[in-house]
Design goal:
Length: 309
């Protein structure tokens, strides 16, 4: 029983990180109605910026305090993501207002490859470390209830708490702020939003900036766990099944979808994998997403679109 709970907790914490990456997809879709394939590249670009600035800033400014250096690197990386958001709006989105969804989708694919290549040119292509002081040693819990207790990674626990706090903050932002309501209005109808005075270009810059901040947090967490390398963008692909499962327009759906996939893939790999030869963790999320596309394509919390003729 203790091993089951340990696996369950590990799956929940991993699922929370998937939810964090999936939020970037949901944010962009809610504001522009397009699926942003560039989110994985944004996670990688943000992680590279954080890793490299944390190396460069102490050299440039002669700072010895790691905390101060990391804080300045965080500010610099966030500024870089805001600049990226502004350039995307100015050079791409502003020229594609009211275009077909497939046009915007192809634009995000182009942004993906540009960020991958530009990130390599700007920051280098080696494997870099991010050290923000997250605890690495494991915890042993419930020793009195289960033999040997339950092993929990402190790093995963801290990452899950950070992800949960950010998810709660973004949920409140969408529900209770004027800007959040404007974002939902733009997602529903660009032309109608413009007709009532909502500045589309400003809303898109805000959206991509917030998505950039989410990508930065996700990049720092995953970079701290795995190291910053170009395969990091592949981690973001796990967020695709999450948004399919939870719904492209739902922040709560991104949370629940991430938890379901995180728990499902861990439990299936540990308890079913040995019978099938392993590897279930690689494809479990995509098979589950395929099932949902067949039976409930809008996801658990997505809005069902009804066309009347």
């Amino acid at each position: 029983m203790g091993f089951f709970i340990e696996t369950l907790i590990g799956g929940l914490m991993t699922g929370m990180l998937y939810s964090l990456v999936a939020l970037g997809f949901v944010l962009i879709f809610k504001a522009s109605g397009v699926f942003n394939f560039a989110q994985g590249a944004m996670v990688l670009f943000a992680a590279l910026a954080m890793a490299r600035f944390s190396e460069w800033i102490p050299q440039w400014l002669g700072i010895e305090s790691k905390f101060v250096a990391n804080a300045l690197a965080l500010v610099a990386a966030m500024a870089a993501m805001v600049v990226v958001a502004w350039l995307i709006e100015r050079l791409v989105l502003a020229r594609l207002v009211n275009q077909e969804g497939i046009t915007l989708l192809m634009a995000t694919l182009g942004i993906t490859y540009f960020l991958d290549g530009f990130g390599q040119t700007l920051f280098g292509s080696n494997i870099y470390k991010i050290d923000v002081g997250m605890p690495k040693d494991p915890l042993i819990l419930f020793e009195g209830l289960f033999p040997g207790g339950v092993l929990v990674s402190q790093e995963d626990l801290a990452a899950a708490v950070i992800a949960a706090a950010l998810v709660a903050l973004l949920s409140a932002f969408f529900q209770f702020t004027g800007t959040g309501r404007a974002l939902r209005a733009v997602a529903d109808d660009h032309q109608a939003a413009q007709s009532i005075g909502i500045p589309l270009n400003r809303i898109w810059v805000i959206t991509w900036s917030v998505a950039g901040f989410v990508a930065l947090v996700a990049g720092i967490i995953w970079g701290s766990k795995l190291g910053v390398q170009f395969s990091l963008s592949l981690v973001a692909l796990k967020a695709l099944p999450v948004v399919i499962l939870g719904g492209l327009t739902s922040v709560p759906g991104a949370i629940l979808g991430g938890l379901i996939i995180g728990v499902g893939e861990k439990l299936s790999e540990v308890f079913i994998g040995p019978m099938l030869g392993g590897g279930i963790e690689i494809w479990f999320a995509y098979v589950l997403a395929l099932v949902f596309l067949l039976v409930r394509p809008q996801g658990l919390f997505g809005e069902k679109i009804i066309d009347r003729v």
